[in-house]
Amino acid sequence: MVITISLFNIANAYKIYEFEEELAQKDTLAAQQKLAAFEAYGDVESNYKKVFDIYINNWMKDKYGLSKVDSSSLQEIAFQSPRVAGNAVYMARVMLNIDTIDTETYSAKSMNISTNILYDLLKLYPNPSSKFIHYQLPILENEKGKVRILDVSGKLIKQWKVDSQNTIGSIDISHYSKGIYLFELNLNNGKSFIKKLVVN
Where are the domains of the chain? Predict the structure, then answer.
């Protein structure tokens, strides 16, 4: 029984890889075909399929307004813990423009005013941009971490280490393809901050 589950996971991991390759090539038709053939065996894979189906049929076609049905589906995923429900949670939050912090005991449903204020300390400007992006990171004294920039398929574009001595900086994004990216800050105390980065 365990072997069967493992084979499903390996098979789906390869399908996800193929699907993300089509997304990276901006081949909407091929991506739709691969996603349609993808069988979800658990919550993580089901979330992945739902989010990317909405992404392909909306954002890849430059339609950024979501229907009530799509918005509701994304909200169900966005309010789950990414540690349990997978990376699709982050994508759903980006598409809904939900800003949140995740720690080992934190879930998006428990957001309150104080955490939103803390989150707002993570700044990207100008955003959207086509040349440079400037950032300000909410890192306290003695905190360390890593910044990652990922495209919508989850592919790592750039990463670097940060600490309380280098909380402000700039990135040259002139060579990035137009589209939506995730700007992610992960601190050594378990806090994670994510913001949408738009390259135009």
Answer: 2-96, 101-199
Q: What is d(CA 129, CA 119) in angstroms, rounded to the nearest whole number?
A: 21
- For the segment 170-188, what is each residue's pLDDT rounded down to a tens digit? 899 999 998 889 899 988 8
What are the residue ranges of helices labelled H in the chain? 2-24, 28-36, 43-57, 68-78, 82-85, 88-96, 113-119
Token pair belonging to 132: 């440079």
Identify the sign of the CA torsion 52, 183, 62, 93.
Answer: positive
Of 114, 99, 129, the C-alpha closest to 195 is: 99
- For domain 101-199, give the fold: Immunoglobulin-like (2.60.40)
Can you give the pLDDT at residue 162? Answer: 93
> Tokens 């360390």, residue?
144
**pLDDT tens-digit series, residues 51-75:** 888 888 887 777 778 888 988 888 8
- Listed in sequence order, the residues at least 6 apart from 30 whose beta carbon sits closer than 8 Å to its beta carbon are 22
Cα 153 from Cα 177, distance rounded (Å)? 13
Return the SS3 of 144.
strand
